[in-house]
Amino acid sequence: MSVTKETILNELARITIPEGNIVDLDMVKALVIDQGNVSFVLEVPPEKGKRMEPVRESAVRILEQLPDVNKVSVVMTAHSEKASKPAEKGPPPDLKLGGHPRQETNLTNLEGVRKIVAVASGKGGVGKSTVSLNLAVSLVKLGYKVGLLDADIHGPSLPIMTGMSSKPYSPDGKTIIPLEVFGIKVMSIGFLLPKEEAVIWRGPMLMGALQQMMQQVKWGQLDIILVDLPPGTGDVQLTLCQRFPLTGAIIVCTPQDLALADARRAITMFQKLNSPILGIVENMSYYLCPKCNNKDFVFGRNGARQEARKLGVPFLGEIPLEMSIRKGGDDGKPIALNPGEAADVFALIGELII
Known about the structure:
Elements: H1 5-12, E1 16-17, E2 20-21, E3 28-34, E4 37-43, H2 53-64, E5 71-77, H3 86-89, E6 116-120, H4 128-141, E7 146-150, H5 158-162, E8 179-181, E9 184-188, H6 203-216, E10 224-228, H7 235-243, E11 248-253, H8 257-272, E12 277-283, E13 287-288, E14 295-296, H9 303-311, E15 315-319, H10 323-331, H11 341-353
Parallel strand pairs: 4-5, 6-10, 6-11, 7-9, 7-10, 11-12, 12-15
Antiparallel strand pairs: 1-2, 3-4, 8-9, 13-14
Helix pairs in contact: 4-11, 6-7
């Protein structure tokens, strides 16, 4: 007999903190049971933070003892809507949106960051944001401290893909305390603007916004910040490469020739700016029929793998075209939270770049 959601919740209700058990306190989020693999998000009060790690470990230990459970994955996040209201924490940050870049680059808030990695592509629509968020989730599950910056000023995706509508707060009107979700410190201009408002800025304003978000956000001690870049080879990419200590770039593309041609341009840009290419990720590599398990290579086959070999850069992995990946992005529940083939691919990519 397969394990049920009711069984899992009953077991988790045995875990208590002074305020009550973690189920009644609504700390168990996004519970998924898939062929004996159990995953969920443990959402804890921000003020408790790391002190709740023993609770997470207890949850894993209790569930692993159940006879029908094969694998348990629990991601702890300190985000909550109540805790992140700016009125309770301080005034909203004064970004002076649209300001031009400053001549000086202050790296004080980046001193605790070990790596800065760009996630880029030559064209839009290839899944950079999907790769960025799921890669960040996978790195957290591997035990790393992760930040994620949505640098696509004109088309920020992070608010929808994380399910977050809160605004960051500021203790002094200048320094920004990032939001946290799935254990990731996140920042996007989409958190600072009304939902339907368009950003209509020229290049210098985009450069200034990136510089402000990189420098004014208090990132703290992190193993890595992933920077989800806009498509193309423009001002934002130039600013990131020239103003900040970029570890390298991941190039995302699909197998089709048109996407590969644009990916080559992106790779050439980073190479001209002396920024290492960490590898190529091929997204939407194939469609796996859920009824017959037949692989259909909708956009071509092995295009990115062959291109990586030709250019002498690492090939990091193939991500399938799956409805669950798309749905996870729309619902604010990234697929990497749950055990499965897609999550395994993202975890492997994470291990290759960290």
